[in-house]
Amino acid sequence: MSGTSGSTHGMRALPVGDDALLVEVSSGEQAQALHAELLRRRAEGTLSVREIVPAARTVLLDGLDDPARLASELTASEVPPALPRTQEIIELPVRYDGPDLADVAVLWGVSEEAVARIHAGTEFRVAFCGFAPGFGYLTGLPARYDVPRRATPRTSVPAGAVGLAGPYTGVYPRSSPGGWQLIGTTGAVLWDHTRVPAALLSPGTRVRFVPLGRR
Amino acid sequence: MTDRALFVVRAGALTTVQDLGRPGYAHLGVPRSGALDASTAALVNRLVGNPSGAAVLESTLNGCALRPRCPVTVAVGGAPCPVTVDGRPVAWGAPVQVPGGALLNIGTALSGVRGYVAFSGGVAVEPVLGSRSTDLLSGLGPPPLTDGAVLPLGQVIGGHARVDVVPQPAPPAELVLRVTVGPRDDWFTPAALRAFTTSTYRVSSASNRIGLRTEGPALERAFSGELPSEGMVLGAVQVPPDGRPVVFLADHPTTGGYPVIAVVRTADLRAAAQAAPGTPVRFVPVRRG
Predict the structure, then answer these.
(1) In this structure, are B213 and B135 located in the same domain?
(2) B189 in contact with chain A, both atoms CB, cutoff 8 A
(3) What rounded mean pLDDT belongs to chain A?
(4) Chain A residue with Cα closest to B129
(5) Which residues are within 8 A (CB) of A134 and not within 5 positions of it... i.e. 6 or more apart?
(6) Quick count: other Cβ atoms within 10 Å of Cβ A82?
(7) Which among B19, B32, B118, B243 counts the fewest CB atoms within 10 Å?
(8) What is the nearest CA distance from A93 to chain B, expressed in angstroms?
């Protein structure tokens, strides 16, 4: 086994190589709260680390001086409570015109108009990024709206396509192959490396989709 | 023409611009990228008097050919290969003066895979997020070299090289990768864990800057099920459903959903960058620290 540091609080710190830790918690909400806490510690200068990479149930800390010490410190503490939602909301203009909208309506057991209404009525949060620069995995929809990926991925999905997969909503920052169920399109620029910041969405960002013509 | 630039006469199989990469953006889905053999990139930079973070060219197997438009000091390292200027053999692994307009040819590797070519002043393409590296996974940075392309060179700021020639390790006949086990070793059967550290794998021809793929015994999982996506580190040994270990190199994805059975020591990744397809690979477990 890999020398797991256990915890009675549902937080495990798994060593990764010589200078990284994978901190595992039991829910996406806990991962987001832990991520916020680790960012706070880095900002106040009590945590020195090269990368803090949140994901579905984990936060990876890469480039640590003393991972063993941090592991015992973290697993001796409680998972921090979720932070109050004080951050501003990014609004993404959207047209619910995706080629999989009808399929999603069937999966959800509602009309296409209701898919749009439910999606636009949800406040999302970027749980983590990955797949491509600027691609955020947005959570917020209730579990009953989880959808599978398409059986056959598309060879090309256009930039700005809004899709669903599993519990997540995502927006393709650039044209790429993809297997998400496409329900809409946004003109927002998710990634522009000449802009500061380059990524419109980063972990923790709150997001709302605003149907065009109904602002 | 006497401007500070390189004309690409022959791009080769795959030649990219590389520096130290763009660490610090993994949380946005941006791979670290950078030279696969970072020590050799730093070495050839030193040989031409550049700082270690200057951008160099990384060639793959069959080198490349360039015509600098100005006099430039060049050093070639990494995979050993013949180097010529206007057809005349010149030194490999040492600084060489190339006159403006001369043809510099980096030949096919005699062994190893990746050649590194430094130019005094460095390759000065526009940086993206602080790096000039080509990232083949996400498409950030300059595209791979093409025949007829022109690359700008930076101004020479440093003085002269402090070393004339330095030893470089020979590309490995057998690739021995030291690994620390975990974080997801518990996803594999005891037999698979034994097979992982006792079998000889071979480098697959499907290897690239994203990962060193292997062929050999498939590693069986202890249970089925999906691992939620989690952050990935350089050197992570990920095991996809086909059971063949993949060692993540510089352009690796920042998150992934296949279990990581072990992580390769960073110091051993330069040898991985030089292991040609078919090279035997062994994973040797070591203690952390």
Answers:
(1) no
(2) no
(3) 91
(4) A193
(5) A173, A190, A191, A198, A199, A200, A201, B28, B29
(6) 12
(7) B243
(8) 21
Q: Which long-range contacts (CB under 8 A, 24 or more apart) does A83-86 make?
A: A83/A33, A83/A36, A85/A206
State the smallest CA–CA distance between residue A27 and chain B in angstroms: 11
For residues B115-120, average pLDDT? 98
| Residues facing residue B247 across a β-bridge | B212, B237
Q: What per-residue confidence (pLDDT) applies to A1?
A: 39
Burial, B102: exposed, middle or buried (Cβ in 10 Å; 0-12, 13-18, 19+)? middle
List the single residue in B with minimal CA-CA distance to A205: B28
pLDDT mean over A37-44: 93
Task: Give yes or no: residues B129 and B260 share one domain.
Answer: no
Q: Are A71 and A93 in a shared domain?
A: no
Question: In this structure, what are the phi and psi dihedrals at residue B83, rounded to the nearest 5 degrees?
Answer: -125, 135
Chain B nearest-CA distance from A213, in A, is 31
Could you count the other beta carbons within 10 Å of the beta carbon of residue B267?
11
pLDDT of residue A92: 98
How far, in Å, CA of A131 to CA of A124, rounded? Answer: 19
Q: Read off φ and ψ for residue B200, nearest 5 degrees.
A: -105, 120
Instruction: Render pLDDT for B202-211 as a digit per residue (tens, 0 to 9).
Output: 999 999 999 9
Nearest-angstrom CA–CA distance, A113 and A99: 14
Q: How far apart are CA A82 and CA A94, in angstroms?
A: 29
Of A85 and B230, the structure prediction assigns the larger pLDDT to B230
Q: Are B163 and B137 in contact (CB under 8 A)?
A: no
Range of the domain at B214: 175-285
Paired tokens of B164: 């004339």
The CATH number of residue A45's host domain is 3.30.1360.40
The answer to whether residue A3 is domain-embedded is: no
Q: Are residues A56 and A159 in the same domain?
A: no
User: Which one of B24, B29, B289 has the shortest CB-CB distance to A131?
Assistant: B29
**Closest to B27 (Cβ–Cβ): which among A52, A56, A63?**
A52
pLDDT in tens, A186-211: 999 999 999 999 999 999 999 999 99
Q: Which of residues 14-43 of B touch A (CB under 8 A)?
A: 23-30
The counts of H helices and E strands in chain A are: 4, 13
pTM: 0.93
SS3 B246: strand
B230 to A137: CB separation less than 8 angstroms, yes or no: no
Residue A4: what pLDDT?
47
Percentage, residues of chain B above pLDDT 70: 96
Residues A155 and A205 grouped into a single domain? yes
